[in-house]
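Exercise 7 asks you to align residues with tokens for two separate proteins.
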Amino acid sequence: MKDAIQNVAAGIFIKDRQVLIAQRNRTTRNPAFRGLWEFPGGKQEEGETILQCLEREIMEEFAVRCRADKILIESPYAYDFGAINLVGISGELLDENLTLTVHDAYRWVRIEDLPNYAFPPADLPLIEHIKNLR
């Protein structure tokens, strides 16, 4: 099943024209992603919807609950290790006391400042979409 496309949830949490981003751990399995910034989330598991996936991943990665609202954009991308479909999902954090469990850092950044951060290629269409949100 090497050719299967992996759905990956990416949380787009916006508050006061700022969006939550997280820095990949410098010991991440794939060296190409170490230290890059991303929209928090992760791989969809069998038997869960992509919205459930985001809620589970945020609990695992930050020890807080969130409400996943709706899919905003999908960004299919073929990496050398396999193809993913990065699904940008709007949501709301139900607690602001985030605890880092897998990332090196997190930040709330102004939407217009997103291009100043290094992201994996699949995330770039999400940034463009977010910049156009009103």
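Second protein for Exercise 7:
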Amino acid sequence: MIRPAIALFAAVGLTLTALPASAQNASQIAQVRRGASCPGCNLFQGDFSGMERTGLNLSGARIRQADISLSVMNRTNFSRSDLRDVEAYGAVLSSSNFNGADLTNASFVGTFLEGASFTGAKLSGTNLSGAEMARARGLTQSQLNQACGDQNTVLPSGLRIPAC
């Protein structure tokens, strides 16, 4: 009788460890879609595509694998946020703050990032093809060497980006 109970507890334990540590928080995603700031929120895999909001505070938020394609989110504070694997195709994010954010493997193809700040942002594997960043601030050559772009990527003077 003890052996089956141990096997059952082991099976339950393995099942629980296979579950995601922090699934998305639907109410927090809805809150942001309505235009509310949500610093430190869990917005994992949230769909914010086509959203038009200005000046949101999403600092320290978990926005990993979210879709912000074709959204207009000017002056949004993404500082220290987890933006890994985000899809931001064609988004307008001018004057937004990405300081200290992790944008690993994010896709910012065709994104408008004029005046955005990237001090200390992690850009490993970030696709910036066609991104408009001529007036972006805080970018270093070291950061851009970890990202990729194309002939249509517009960078601040003196900086370059490897081809994707």
